[in-house]
């Protein structure tokens, strides 16, 4: 690994899906989720239990965000205290109302990453020029993902429970083989086109350590290897969903690079990443009834030219 000094060196022979869905594609591996896959997902429904996976925006316990981003701020614009003042809007008949707004990083809470969110070597997903990101994403923004929506068979891979831990530790890692072993221990198997939901219970770790977490910031998660990338490509995984900020171990130990899997999976294979989900209630239910597969659905907010967007994924068991 000594001659590897850039992401281009690391991923020189890495596989890509560029062109697989045509020269104009902007949603990548989500193309695997056709109508038959939606029905395969719906066929998992047994009890009709519904789980929402979005974290609370403005959680008083604190919001985990990538360093350099800040948690969302909600501001009250109108409430009962505004209606006596001279600036109160005209509302004939005595109507009062409350209004508020949020100032939020689109990558700041539970969110879908657009395929054009990360890149290296001057090219984003499908080979589009990285200059198409200037001033907003003209290619592979979150818009086409939001427009099509996401639905299919989801499988929870409860890595924390599999390892017998309340939460995985900072920097703790696992491979695709560990995901397969976890699935087997749960009495299920990862099938082609499955949407993978990987639980580390990172939020408990984050809340335990508070701001100190950022001092030696390294999340637990999948870590880069050529074999892992090939496995994701061969399994035709459309969407990787986790409870961590970055969906992978933050720093790749051998090279020291940040987020090589973002590059290998998202930029090269077109696999959509969904981050900072709350998987706790779902995980408790799966552990209780032993059913780890379900219908997974999600649609990020439609935000013009955005790098990502907030989402509240819904799982039905
Ligand atoms: C980066 O890619 C920097 O962040 P995220 O984990 O939100 O994708």
Automatic annotation (TrEMBL):
GO terms for molecular function: hydrolase activity. It is an enzyme of class 3 (hydrolase). Its EC number is 3.5.-.-. Signal peptide: none annotated. Keywords: Hydrolase. The keyword Hydrolase applies. It comes from the Bacteria. This is Cyclase family protein. It comes from Streptomyces ochraceiscleroticus.
């Amino acid at each position: 690994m000594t001659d590897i000094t850039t992401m281009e060196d690391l991923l020189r022979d890495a596989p890509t899906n560029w062109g697989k869905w045509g020269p104009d594609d902007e949603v990548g591996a989500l193309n695997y989720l056709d109508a038959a896959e939606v029905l395969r997902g719906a066929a998992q429904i047994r009890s009709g239990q519904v789980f929402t996976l979005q974290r609370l925006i403005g959680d008083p316990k604190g919001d985990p965000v990538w360093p350099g981003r800040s948690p969302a701020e909600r501001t009250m614009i109108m409430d009962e205290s505004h209606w006596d003042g001279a600036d109160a809007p005209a509302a004939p008949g005595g109507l009062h109302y409350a209004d508020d707004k949020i100032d939020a990083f689109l990558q700041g809470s539970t969110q879908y990453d657009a395929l054009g969110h990360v890149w290296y070597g001057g090219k984003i997903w499908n080979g589009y020029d990285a200059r198409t990101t200037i001033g907003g994403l003209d290619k592979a923004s979150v818009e086409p993902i939001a427009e099509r929506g996401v639905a299919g068979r989801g499988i929870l891979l409860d890595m924390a429970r599999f390892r017998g831990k309340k939460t995985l530790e900072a920097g703790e890692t696992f491979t695709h083989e560990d995901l397969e072993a976890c699935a087997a221990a749960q009495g299920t198997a990862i099938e082609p086109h499955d949407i993978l939901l990987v639980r580390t219970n990172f939020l408990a770790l984050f809340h335990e350590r508070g701001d100190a977490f950022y001092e030696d910031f390294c999340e637990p998660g999948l870590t880069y290897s050529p074999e892992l990338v090939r496995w994701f490509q061969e399994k035709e995984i459309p969407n990787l969903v986790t409870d961590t900020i970055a969906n992978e171990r933050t720093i790749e130990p051998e090279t020291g690079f940040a987020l090589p899997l973002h590059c290998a999976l998202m930029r090269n294979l077109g696999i959509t990443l969904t981050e900072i989900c709350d998987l706790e209630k779902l995980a408790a239910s799966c552990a209780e009834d032993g059913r780890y597969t379900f219908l997974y659905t999600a649609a990020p907010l439609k935000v013009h030219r955005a790098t990502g967007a907030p989402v509240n994924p819904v799982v039905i068991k």
